[in-house]
């Protein structure tokens, strides 16, 4: 059928799907959210979504599409597709929507003269910052600084944030070796243009198996979650990865075994750092870790493990980078997931993106480069993203979304615990207790996981997977208990049919 005819044929269905709304707010900041999913096509994606993807496929990769979205019709925790289907969104654009679709305060910001001016006069921030740049940054990003990190670097995306944190760590590491006030030698200046030492030193970033830190060259060299990300792409071959601790879930029931696994990993981290410093082959300038190894399957570890990493890196003069691209901005029930660790000294870098709708990293003054143009780019982020981040932070405070995430997460976890007892083959290794709504569990296997996700989508619930067999929950911060109950009910319906 012609796409125009398909669109016309579903107009009535779309109107009907959005007819069942409440007149009062059903989630923080939202009025007239749908009360239940509505699937009006025989499958998801429907015919219009498929045709739209096919059209996109003529000029851009489309094989990862789930469905085409009608963002104007999406509201709060509900995502509408081009066919008129309305789904409860428990995936939130790969964990990147914080306060729901079309939040009234974000719409108000977007219509303001301040936002419009920032949007149509995009500056080269490193050379021509807006007069209001300090005000914009400090009133938003600056108000949620991780403790001890006073400098802020703005960037374009999560991969960019990690790449630039790597660069800053390398520059600070070599500056410390050279002496911060020492000038570059002629040999350094000449050799770096040939990609040779000493100007291009043999340094490395240590990461962990299951890690995902991005898809650019440096970040990709530290990514270890899936082969498909790395195949056919040159990498920094001497960048090591230490196995993530082989913990069992729930963490509280296996504390003795998990402590042994974590200590083994910590010993290996320290051994790599010491060996590289003693024998060469790429000294470790920084260790990067996610508070929860998200794309690699939502792998957890104890607070003691992360304290151990901080102690080891501090003891050996290695920078400690915490990648909060996915865990940051209140998703775990604290604004920053590493706040749970109770560190005696802060990380050296904390990177962010996704729910912040802006990207970059927080860091210490001593990791600022010694010369201009060393950490630089034309845009260095986007002022409109900084304004949106400010609005999101205000909404999180005004609507008490941290406490909402904690209470809703506790409800989801306890309900999933009950379901896991009833369906032990399909809800295994439940994890994320006490970490807000950042919850995951393993299905029987990868094929079963993918079937389960497809069946949930057909019932009007959009959920995602990660790792080899995990189902991960990534709801928005405005996700309420009644939304959770819809998800849990649909999940049980699907499990009954499995």
UniProtKB/TrEMBL annotation:
InterPro entries: 4NH2But_aminotransferase_euk (IPR004631), Aminotrans_3 (IPR005814), Aminotrans_3_PPA_site (IPR049704), PyrdxlP-dep_Trfase (IPR015424), PyrdxlP-dep_Trfase_major (IPR015421), PyrdxlP-dep_Trfase_small (IPR015422). One of its GO terms (cellular component) is mitochondrion. Its cofactor is pyridoxal 5'-phosphate. The keyword Transcription does not apply. GO terms for biological process: gamma-aminobutyric acid catabolic process. It catalyses: 4-aminobutanoate + 2-oxoglutarate = succinate semialdehyde + L-glutamate. It comes from the Eukaryota. SUPFAM superfamilies: PLP-dependent transferases (SSF53383). PANTHER family: 4-AMINOBUTYRATE AMINOTRANSFERASE, MITOCHONDRIAL, AMINOTRANSFERASE. This is 4-aminobutyrate aminotransferase. The lineage of its organism: Eukaryota, Fungi, Dikarya, Basidiomycota, Ustilaginomycotina.
């Amino acid at each position: 059928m012609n796409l125009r005819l398909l669109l016309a044929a579903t107009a009535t269905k779309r109107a009907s799907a959005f007819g069942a709304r409440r007149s009062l707010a059903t989630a923080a900041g939202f009025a007239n959210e749908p009360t239940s999913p509505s699937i009006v096509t025989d499958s998801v994606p429907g015919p219009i979504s498929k045709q739209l993807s096919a059209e996109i496929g003529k000029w851009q990769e489309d094989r990862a599409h789930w469905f085409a979205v009608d963002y104007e019709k999406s509201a709060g925790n509900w995502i509408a597709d081009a066919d008129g289907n309305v789904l409860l969104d428990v995936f939130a654009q790969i964990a990147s929507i914080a306060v729901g679709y079309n939040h009234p305060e974000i719409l108000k910001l977007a219509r303001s003269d301040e936002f419009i001016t920032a949007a149509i006069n995009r500056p080269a921030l490193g050379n021509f910052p807006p007069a209001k740049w300090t005000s914009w940054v400090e009133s938003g990003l600056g108000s949620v600084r991780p403790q001890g990190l006073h400098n802020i670097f703005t960037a374009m995306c999560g991969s960019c944030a990690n790449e630039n944190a790597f660069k800053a760590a390398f520059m600070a590491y070599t500056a410390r070796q050279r002496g911060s006030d020492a000038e570059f030698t002629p040999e350094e200046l000449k050799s770096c243009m040939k990609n040779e030492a000493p100007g291009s030193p043999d340094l490395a970033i240590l990461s962990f198996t299951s890690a995902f830190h991005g898809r650019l060259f440096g970040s990709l060299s530290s990514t270890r979650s899936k082969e498909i990300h790395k195949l056919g792409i040159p990498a920094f071959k001497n960048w090591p990865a230490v196995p993530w601790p082989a913990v069992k879930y729930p963490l509280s029931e296996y504390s003795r075994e998990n402590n042994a696994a974590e200590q083994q990993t910590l010993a290996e981290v320290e051994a790599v750092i010491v060996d590289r410093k003693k024998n060469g082959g790429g000294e470790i300038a920084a260790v990067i870790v996610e508070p929860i190894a998200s794309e690699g399957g939502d792998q957890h570890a104890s607070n003691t493990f992360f304290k151990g990493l901080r102690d080891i890196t501090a003891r050996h003069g290695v920078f400690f980078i915490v990648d909060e691209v996915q865990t940051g901005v209140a998703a775990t029930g604290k604004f920053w997931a590493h706040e749970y660790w109770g560190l005696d000294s802060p990380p050296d870098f904390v990177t962010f993106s996704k729910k912040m709708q802006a990207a970059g990293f927080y860091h210490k003054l001593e990791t600022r480069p010694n010369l201009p143009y060393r950490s630089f780019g034309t845009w260095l982020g986007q002022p409109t993203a900084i304004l949106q981040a400010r609005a999101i932070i205000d909404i999180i405070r005004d609507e008490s979304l941290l406490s909402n995430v904690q209470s809703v997460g506790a409800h989801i976890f306890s309900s999933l615990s009950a379901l896991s007892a009833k369906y032990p083959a399909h809800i295994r290794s439940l994890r994320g207790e006490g970490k807000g709504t950042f919850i995951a569990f393993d299905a029987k296997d990868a094929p079963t996981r993918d079937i389960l996700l497809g069946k949930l989508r057909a019932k009007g619930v959009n959920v995602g997977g990660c790792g080899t067999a995990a189902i991960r929950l990534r709801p928005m911060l405005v996700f309420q208990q009644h939304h959770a109950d819809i998800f849990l009910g649909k999940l049980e319906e699907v499990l009954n049919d499995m």
